[in-house]
């Protein structure tokens, strides 16, 4: 599959371009495109295998030793686009997993998914630079997995987030109050979710329970869609955002069968049409979708499809009696 024409920066300012009726709505009612394992556009094949290694990664490392990392790259990478490219394409939610490097001195933190990625600071600076040029755009940064991190690492990361984003960080508050109008007025552009007790008491760190992201953990698209439908029906009516993870997850058996093809060729590409059909049929709103994440967001017109779902909210408003 090839990258859709016009992926560029066509949606670099989509939030700032929304009609006033939508910018006045709670963000939890809008459809927002996100990426799964957002940072995996580059992984370091020369660094040690990460402490987050899953069962299938251990399997690869054990069975293939020297060749393992080359194979692991194909199964660890879930995105092709850099942070800037994802932002230009309209992605506004980032799924972030981080780790220290065991044995390395200091408190440096890296992105991780089986293999180590870039330093977290470099990624945050790239995002901050984009936000500086696009003042009405807002991002969700969801730090949901931590590996090989002691108390001092968390202090370092939380301080780093505050240093890089400063006054752009939105204070934890009632989710229902968070509209684009509210964020623009306060000049907030970043909502950080920090799924760890270390962030308790830090006003600009939102708790993980305000952004549930149910995980289907299946290789079968029909089971995935059933799961997405069920969890949407169970979505809280208030108090949190909601992430629909429109992703398939490989098992050891999947990796063994598609070893040389990799995640993209063996599992994602063949099932994308089914998954995208589900996305296209969704509606945002109180009982509808909010944030939707995907692997390889550049393989289809994913971000554009999700953003356009917000037009349904306009038509609903127009139908209301005056």
Automatic annotation (TrEMBL):
GO molecular function terms noted in the UniProt entry: phosphoric diester hydrolase activity
Organism, scientific name: Oreochromis niloticus (Nile tilapia)
Name by which UniProt lists this protein: Phosphatidylinositol specific phospholipase C X domain containing 2
Matches recorded under CDD domains: PI-PLCXD1c
Coiled coil feature spans: none
Biological processes per GO annotation: lipid catabolic process; signal transduction
Keywords carried by this UniProt record: Hydrolase, Lipid degradation, Lipid metabolism, Transducer
Domain (Phosphatidylinositol-specific phospholipase C X): residue spans on this chain: 26-195
